[in-house]
Structure formats: structure tokens, C-alpha cells
Amino acid sequence: MPSTLSHAHLTLTRAPRPPAGAPRDEVVAQLRETARQIRLQDLALVHFAGAGHIGGDFSAVDVLTVLYGAVLDVAPDRVDDPERDRFVLSKGHVAGSYYVTLAAYGFLPVEQLATFLKPLSTLGGHPNRLHVPGVEASTGPLGHGLPIAVGQALAARLDSSPRQTYVLTGDGEMQEGSNWEAMMSASHYGLDNLTVVVDRNGLQQGASTEASMDLAPLADKARAFGFAVSEVDGHDHGALLDLLGSRERPGGRPRFVIAHTHKGHPISFMSDQVAWHHKVPDADQYATARAELDALAPAAGGAL
Amino acid sequence: MPSTLSHAHLTLTRAPRPPAGAPRDEVVAQLRETARQIRLQDLALVHFAGAGHIGGDFSAVDVLTVLYGAVLDVAPDRVDDPERDRFVLSKGHVAGSYYVTLAAYGFLPVEQLATFLKPLSTLGGHPNRLHVPGVEASTGPLGHGLPIAVGQALAARLDSSPRQTYVLTGDGEMQEGSNWEAMMSASHYGLDNLTVVVDRNGLQQGASTEASMDLAPLADKARAFGFAVSEVDGHDHGALLDLLGSRERPGGRPRFVIAHTHKGHPISFMSDQVAWHHKVPDADQYATARAELDALAPAAGGAL
Amino acid sequence: MTQRLAPRWLEAETFDCRDAFVETLVALASEDPRIVGVVNDSVGSSKLDAFRTAFPDRLVNVGIAEQDMVGMAAGLAGGGRIPFVSGAACFLTARAMEQIKVDAAYSRNNLKLCGMSPGVAYGELGPTHHSIEDVAWLRALDQLVVVVPADPVETAAAIRWAAAYEGPVFVRVSRTPVPQVHPADHTFTPGRATVLHEGDDVTLVSNGTVLWRALAAAEQLAAEGIGARVLSMASVSPLDTAAVVQAARETGALVTAEESVPRGGLGGAVAEAVVAHHPVPVRMLGVDAFAPTGSAGYLLDRYGMSPEGIARAARELLHRRRS
Amino acid sequence: MTQRLAPRWLEAETFDCRDAFVETLVALASEDPRIVGVVNDSVGSSKLDAFRTAFPDRLVNVGIAEQDMVGMAAGLAGGGRIPFVSGAACFLTARAMEQIKVDAAYSRNNLKLCGMSPGVAYGELGPTHHSIEDVAWLRALDQLVVVVPADPVETAAAIRWAAAYEGPVFVRVSRTPVPQVHPADHTFTPGRATVLHEGDDVTLVSNGTVLWRALAAAEQLAAEGIGARVLSMASVSPLDTAAVVQAARETGALVTAEESVPRGGLGGAVAEAVVAHHPVPVRMLGVDAFAPTGSAGYLLDRYGMSPEGIARAARELLHRRRS
Ligand SMILES: Cc1ncc(C[n+]2csc(CCOP(=O)(O)OP(=O)(O)O)c2C)c(N)n1
Ligand SMILES: Cc1ncc(C[n+]2csc(CCOP(=O)(O)OP(=O)(O)O)c2C)c(N)n1
Ligand SMILES: [Mg+2]
Ligand SMILES: [Mg+2]
């Protein structure tokens, strides 16, 4: 039984959004460091709560950080602004890393993270849109987020609004038929204001996607469903920033971004290991993982 | 109110299955004539019952006839034979033409067709596997048949049996996500004993598939989901016979046959008209449609 | 079966409630630009043509894809719209059950789910197209208001109320012809029943297409000197527990009659209220099995819900109580 | 909450019923080659590793795709197999509701639907992963046998019975640790309840993970001189109406307690039986709302189903009846 999380484990500090016009290198460096901080904090959350989905957390952190740090037109004081961008975390089981990201960007007080999974906490195992500021959709069951995001994007289109919609799905999640219904709708309605990002870590709950239910060729599938497809290293903050941050849109087609990632990245003993889908680091593993993340600190000269 | 169907309207006679080795031309001619008879009988069923889905009935009749007349290894006296081929009518709303086809090939007494849609009849608006001999799956809700067929094909694989599974779906029906889940499974399991035939009539209930929820490019979608795709004129009995009748199988891949058809074919005022999805011919329309089908009789020198 | 009907039922004009549904929706949408329709290739079967003509850009067809239909509607709600999701009740509820649970009820998105042609309205199309379970299914969900209107007046009232209410609602809208049973100024209030016929010997609780049959039964019973109270219970969840308990107390026996499975449905709801507060005998009528081939009217009669069948059930219940 | 528990409950060894499930399934599958497992990326969460090891070719993973899972299983059944479909109860039921209705219940395919970790077993993962509605949902379906076993013995018995029965079955299989409450030779018979504790003052009807809590409550009540009969009711559909009616007649008051929504669930089933045959007061305990964050045990206590909570409900009911 791990002891409970105390104030000393709340290491996260609020990350400033880079000012408009900041040099790309600076922005990227800042995003990289924020992602590292988010991982450190999330690691503590999962370790002390004794539960969570750290594998999928860590494969998604860089996408989440780039979206909240530099792409989404959202802010803690504008969570009800009709013209905010929309983000839907379809792979809702990575609520841990999502809460930490929201806290890093000021949507939640950092102290609140200490309640993760505690009785009556609003920070439960899956994000609840009624209780967590900034959360647009209550998710957890796979295959919900993409249809909702398509509806959000269509609403923007009906409003003739430039607001954008982003959705992050798991790759195993793309086995759900609801997603292909939504893909068809997005392209039928020509929703070029929609960006689907797939966390392509190649693993799902019990095994690889290939062994469980092969998705390949995923890019061809998305193209045949009318999307403009790109592939990117999902841990490369610069590449993610360039791709996701670009406001250029393929005329009349929604975007499908295959973010190649590693579950559990960059922890040596977690990376690409299916067991870490929802395994909880014990005290030793916690210490090792912390040390590995510490070694990546800018002062230590490391990089994710 | 149409009067009820009387014995005089039971024009269908049982069609013999062509003997093995019969010349292709003879087989094709026989299938063509049987399809014409099936349409005539189905027309009477729908007219006198005052309900039915004649548009989709008529787009599917030729595929049904070729399957039951020359392709499927099934027979009325072997409906429980574990080694029979399996056929699933996923577009269950065309029960009318299906019942007539089953009667033509001896699975039902022709007289029973007179009970179509009558109170307590086993021939209801959608086929029920518990009540109609030869029916493998109770269908009606779209998107059910393909997953069931995949299960049937997988069962054959597990049994190392050469038996084949065929499924006929609507094209609008391919908007259902359940079908894309099944497509993924079929190719994941390498089910080359499965043939999916899509009745590509371009219309669904309320409008064209293009206007309702565009499926194009359907062949690309099926290919990206791992199927070997072919396209065929779904009213050309010879072409259907060559394609569906062939026991050659693409190694390790399920087959996807896009049968290009016309809803309501070949009736002048029904063909390609969305209204005839479930419109019922009145007395005049009934007479006209009969006359048009009569003109296609071999004696009249016509062809479908 | 209907030979003992009072003339007003035999001669009554009947209505397809989808007409009131669409008329009301068009009127509401003209005033509130947030309202959109969402359909699964079901413009015709929902009779939404007039809506599409009036607001072509505000009718979203998702194709034959019910999960996507409810999910997209939740997204539209997140974009500030008020989506009226309209598809055959059988597919809307069974195919999108998890979206209804999570995206509508749990998330409290502002979704109006309109279940077309519920119960056995699809008649000969059979049990795959019947929606006899929807009431029990959706009543099990926390947060969702479940409404089964009985006539065009009540359908319109329910749709108006749903548009004004901020939260998830399911409303049944039937194609089966029904006479008008509520006064023209009838309003809908969740958790509020209406007494349509007074009586102190027995209570008939009903709604939807069966309500007029219960009223006709009450008139038959009245002719025999049996006072049957008729409770019109469009709001199945929340239920008007007070009205049920009062009826149990004052009449001592209840018959429920509905176009759905009574297990967990209106019958179940009434049974639960009764045993919790004032246990009395309840006889539950409904379509409690996969029905054979037949028209909606044929099947309702067959499952004991002709006016005569309902009256008989009430008589038997009273008889049993007395013996 | 548990301070008044008799020592045998405090010290009892507890079991994860998935172990009994898998052990039984492996044993059955060794004898019957028709048995196959069908999962949605849920080998681990169903604890089916031993099955996969023993029969690698007979475990079909459909990926994360519940509609396809049930549909394919129907096809496998059509090919002569006996598919045990095993996935989280919340997704199996809500995501594949229409396949369960049409391909399992209506078509009477020989499907065994095993709902893993139902109720609030997923604890902190929250209401999206809780399956509190499944019992009410599936009870509404004609033809489907719905089973909620209480311990490893009953889980094994239900699985054995399901394998031998030719027709569709839903069985809940929980991960929440429970003590053994049934004797080792306990068998499962649909529509048959078992009396686990005798008493004539009140009846506690329960099943699943709550049954041991009801037994502990009965022991508390016994210490106070209140005789509580405990009815173990794994078979929710069909229900053992005779046992319920006998209990109503002999004890005059019933408390139901279940890890699900009582509206339409076990509570609803009991209420319906009682008002139909012998109206007495019934108090229904269950998880009747989307739960806040908490473990399964915490939530069961919170919704009034600690042994003390159940005993209190019984006491209040008796008190009300006397006053
Ligand atoms: C509808 C549904 N079925 C099953 C699950 C159980 N589940 C939770 S996470 C998971 C695996 C997800 O894999 P993937 O989408 O690849 O996510 P990631 O690898 O990013 O964690 C599964 C099967 C679920 N949450 N929802
Ligand atoms: C799940 C489901 N949703 C809606 C319907 C109502 N419906 C019946 S037929 C039909 C149109 C089908 O179009 P298509 O698949 O193209 O069939 P076809 O043109 O061959 O008649 C619809 C929407 C249904 N039967 N099932
Ligand atoms: Mg993955
Ligand atoms: Mg079509």
C-alpha cells in the first residue's frame, strides 16, 4: 500500500503559455520541459493513488502539452466562451495526465490534484465535464469522443465560426465502429475545422493492436474515409507544434494526424510494455522513473 | 385497400437448381427467368399485403436468385446440415423477395407466401430464423448481418471446413459502424471464406447515399479494411454467376463485391426512384409493372 | 372488441402524433435558432419534411448510424445548440444506449431524444422494429426525463417543455392514430399526472397510445357502476408518486396499461411506488413478450389492452379483492 | 460500519468470482469442444488467461468492438459453437444492447453473455464504467435468462448451467471480493431462489456482492430478536415468484438489496411480484444514481448496503408497519 500523496509531492508549477511571437525554439523548449513536469506529477499521482493508466498517460502527454501549451485557443477564464476551441480527450482513461495538464495550464488548482481518485473527489478515473473546468466531454468508454468532436465541429460550421475542434483518440480505440461512423460524417460534412489525433502507440489493453485486431493500414483507412492524413513523431514537440499549430487547412477535408508514440515513454522499463497499460509503479519503480525523468531536466542537459 | 391475395396470384413455380455441368448459357437463362418470376410474385405480395420494400426487393432479386439458384451449397432437406453454406440477408427489410426466393427453391411451400404480413404469419416484415426454414439470422435492424456472417465464417475456419459464408448488405447500411467493426475482424482473421455483397443501388430510405451520408469511395474503404474488392453489374446474371460462383479465393482475404444495381429494377416508374423504397403499387401500378415484367418473358423475347 | 365503446370513441377523429411533434418543433425553431434536428435517414419516418423545408441547414442527417447520431448531438449541444434527435425508438434507444447513458444522462447534455413509432407501432415489421423495452431501459437511467405522451396535445406540450428544459429528455412520439384525450390547454410537467376520469373503486394508470383505451374502459366500467379513476401518466420518470399513492389509498387497486414491457416500465414504476408507500393489488398490462406478426391495433388488443380487455382486468382485480 | 459483524464475516476468506468463472469455463471447455470465448480486448479484465493458454484457438478477440463481439458470437453459435462472450458489463450491455435484443434474445441464439465487473465494481473509474442499469435493462428483454451470482460457488454453478442450457443467458461475474455464502454443492436453477437464513419477521431479498451483506444484516437482526429470512435470488429473470409471494405472506415485509438500480432491477421485480399476488411493504435498496468517486465497498456502504444499513432498513420497515 503506498502512502498517500502529500503536499511535498505536488511538484507541478503552472506553465505560462508562450507569448505570441515567441521564437519557436523557446516555445519548443518550454513545451518539452512542461511535458517533463507533467510526467513527474502524473507519476506521483498514479503511484500514490495506487491506480491509473500510466502507459497511455505517458504516450499522450506530449500531444496534450503541445495542444494546451501552444495550439488550443482556450484559457481558464474563458471556459464558457462560445468561441473557445474545443478539445475532446476520447481516450478518457488517461484522465491522470489530463488533469495534470489542465492544472499546469491553470484550469485546476495544483493542490486539487492531491484528491485524484479519493472518495468524493471530482477527479475520478475518467474526466467528467460537469465537474472539471475545461473538460468538454465526459469520456471513458472508448469511441465516444470522436462523434462528439464531429458534432462540435459541425456546430462551429453552423455558426460560421473559425473555432477549431481537436480530439485525441487511442489507436486501439479506432476499432470501435462508432468512430468510423463519425469519420464518415466528418468528411461528408467537409469539416476542415476538425483535427483527429490518434495516439498511435501500437498497444491496447491486452496486447499490440496488431495482435488484438489489426488497424493497419490506418492511414489508408482514414484517407478512404475522406481525411487529409499526416504522420508525426508524437513525442517531438517541435514537429507536433508545427503540425498541430498550423492553421492551414486542407480545403474541405478534416485532418487525421497519426502521432507515433510509445506507451510509457520515456521510462526505460515502461516504454512499449503492454503491462504498463494500467500497472502501478511500486516504490522502487517510482524512484527509478523519477530519476529517469530528473535526468532529462534541461539543467541536466537531457531531452525527452 | 387492395383486396387480399388469392390462390390465382400465386404464380410462382419451383425453380429447379441447374444440374452440375449444365452449360453456362442455359444456367444463366434459367436464373434470369427465375428472377423474373420472383419479381412477379413479390410484386403481388407487396401489392396485396399493402406493405413491403419493393425498391430494395427488386435491386436484390438477381443477387438472391444467383446465390440460391447456382452458388450456395444449401438445400431444403439440409437446412440443419452443419456443412451447408451460410447466407445472411443483412438488409432484412427485403424479406418479401427473400421469402419468394426461398419458396422458388423449395424452402417454403409457395402457398405459404399468401400469409405474408397477415396476423400471426411466420412471414413477417423481417425474416425470423426461428420460423422460416433456411433463414440463418433474424435481421431487420441494419448492421447486424455482417458481424453475424463474420462469426459464421470464423466458425467454419475453426472447424477447418470448406463451407462458405455470403452476406448481402444494403449500401446505406454500410454507414453503420458495426459493419466496419466486422470488416476489420474479417480481415484480421483472414476469412477468405467470406463474401460480402453490397447492393449498391445508390439510394437509401430518404435520399441517395451521396446526399444522405456519402460512402464514396466505397471500394477504397473496403480495400483499406483488407478486402479483395470487385465490382459487378448486380442485374447481370452471367456476371454474378461467374463472380459469386467461382470458388477461387484471394489468399487470406475476404471478398467484397460491389453489385451495382437499381432500386426498383426493371420497372420503369420505380427504377432509381427513392420513393419506391417502401411505396406500395396501387392497382394501376400493379398492372403496369406486371405488364412490364410479362414483356420480359423469354417467349416475349425480352431480357431483364 | 370495441362494440361497447361509447360513441365518442368510435367517432372520434384520430391523429398521428408525429404531426403535432413536427408542427411544434417548427414553431419552436422559428423562435429559437439554437434548435436543430438530428436524424438517421429518418426524415420521412419522423415526418420532419416540414422542418427540413423551413430550416434546411438545421437538419443534420448522420446516415444510418445511431451511435454517431447521439454522439454528434452531444457535440452540437456542446456548441450551444439544442438538438432534437429523431429516429425510430427501437434503434435510437437500443443502438445508442451507451451514448444515451454517458453523453445524455451522465453528462447532462441538453439533448432531446425523440423516439419515433415506439412500442408496437411498426406492427407487422415485427419485434426487431418494435420498441417495447425503451421505457424500462431509459427509466433505469439516472438524470433522464422519460415522457410518453398520449395524444397530439400532450405531444406538443412535451416537446415545448423539453425545448425549454435544460437537460436530457426522452419523448416517445407515435404514429399509431389516437384520439385527443387532453384538453387543448393541457401542459406537461415532469412528475405530474392528470386525472382524466374520476372514480373511487379502482384506478387505471396509463399513457401513450393506450390511454384512450383506458378511458374507454373507464366508461364501460362506469356503465356497470364501477368508478374507475384514470391517471394520465406521461411522465414515467420522474413518476408522480403522490398521485399513485393517493390512488392506492383512495381506490385500493390499480391497473396499469402501456404499449411496452411492464417489467420495469410504467407498470413496474407504479408497483415500486405502491409497495414503498401503500401496498395494494396492481395488475400490469403491457406487451410483455416479442409479439407475433400483426398490426399495432391488433397487438394491443391481443395483449389485453382493448378497452374491453382493460375493463376486464379491472373487474377481475376488484373481484379478487372482494373474494 | 462493520463493527457489529459476526466474526465469521470479518474473518471470512474472500474470493474474486472471475476465478471461479474461468476455472469452470476451462473445465467445461475441456469436455465440450463447442465452447469458445469471445472478448473485446478483455482477456486480462475477464481473467481469461488460463482459458487462452489452454485453448489458444478458441479465444476470439474482436478488439474494442462490442457490437461486433455479440454479432460475431451469434454467427459462431450459428456455426454450432457455444460462445461465452466476456467483457466489462457496462460496455457489453450498453454498447451491444441491440445485438443482445435481436441476436441473443429475439433470435434465441445460444449465447452466454458474461458481464464482468458489473454494478460499481470498477469503483473509482466512475459511472461510465459502472454497470448499475444492466439488470433492469436485460430483465426487460423477453427470452433472456438473467443471473446475478453471489459467490464463487454460485458463479461456477451458473456457468455450468448456462453451458448446458440451449438459449441466451446473461451472467454477472464480479471482481469485488466476496465470501462464500452457498454450500459447495449449491446448484443453479432458473426461477428458483434459496433460503439462506430463516426468519418470519421480515425478508431480505438479495443477490450478487450484496448477498453476504444481507446475511450479515440478518445475523445482526437475529441478535436483536428480529427474524429475518434471507432469500438468495440469483435468478432475476425468471424470478422465483412463488418464493417471493410466500415470503410476503409469511413475513409481511421485504427489503431488497442489490448492486444495481432497483428501478426495474431486482427491487422492481420483487415489487411487481408482490403487488400482483400479495401486497406488502417493500423497501428497495440499491445504487439508484450515478455514483460519486469511491471504491466499490465504499459505494455499497454509501448507498445503504453495509450490513448495518440493510439491518436499519429492515428495522425501519418493521417499525413503520407496526405504527
Ligand atoms: C467501449 C470500451 N470498451 C472497453 C474499454 C476498456 N479499455 C480501457 S482502455 C482500453 C485499451 C485502449 O487502448 P488504446 O485505445 O490503444 O489506448 P492507449 O493505448 O492510448 O492507452 C480498453 C480496452 C473501454 N474503456 N471502453
Ligand atoms: C439500425 C437501423 N436504422 C434504421 C433503419 C430503418 N431503415 C430501414 S431500410 C433503410 C434504408 C436502407 O438503405 P439501404 O441499406 O441502401 O437498403 P436498400 O437501398 O437496398 O433498400 C432504413 C434507414 C433500420 N432498419 N435499421
Ligand atoms: Mg494504444
Ligand atoms: Mg441502397
Task: Tell me what you see in this structure.
The complex is a heterotetramer, with 2 copies of chain A (304 residues) and 2 copies of chain C (323 residues). By secondary structure, chain A is an alpha/beta fold. Chain A has a 5-stranded parallel sheet, sandwiched between helices. In chain A, helix 8 links the parallel strand 4 and strand 5. The radius of gyration of chain A is 18 Å and the shape is globular. Chain A starts with 23 loop residues before the first helix and ends in a 10-residue tail after the last helix. Chain C is α/β, with parallel strands linked by helices and 323 residues long. Helix content of chain C is 42%, strand content 18%. In chain C, the strands form 3 sheets. A 7-stranded mixed sheet of chain C has the order 3-2-4-5-7-6-12, sandwiched between helices. In chain C, strand 10, helix 9 and strand 11 form a beta-alpha-beta unit. The chains are: A alpha/beta (304), C alpha/beta (323). Chains B and D meet through helix 4 and helix 5 of B and helix 4 and helix 6 of D.
SSE layout:
The complex is a heterotetramer, with two copies of chain A (304 residues) and two copies of chain C (323 residues).
Chain A: H1 24-49, H2 54-71, E1 86-89, H3 95-104, H4 145-158, E2 165-170, H5 177-188, E3 194-200, H6 209-213, H7 218-224, E4 228-233, H8 237-245, E5 255-260, H9 283-294
Parallel strand pairs in A: 1-2, 2-3, 3-5, 4-5
Helix pairs in contact in A: 1-2, 1-3, 1-9, 2-3, 2-8, 4-5
Chain C: H1 7-11, E1 14-15, H2 17-31, E2 35-39, H3 49-54, E3 59-61, H4 66-78, E4 82-88, H5 89-95, H6 97-106, E5 112-116, H7 134-139, E6 145-147, H8 152-164, E7 169-173, E8 178-179, E9 194-197, E10 202-206, H9 211-223, E11 228-232, E12 235-237, H10 241-251, E13 254-257, H11 266-277, E14 282-285, H12 296-305, H13 307-322
Helix pairs in contact in C: 2-8, 4-6, 9-13, 10-11, 12-13
The structure holds thiamine diphosphate (2 copies) and magnesium ion (2 copies).
Residues 170-172, 201, 203-204 of chain B line the site of one magnesium ion (MG).
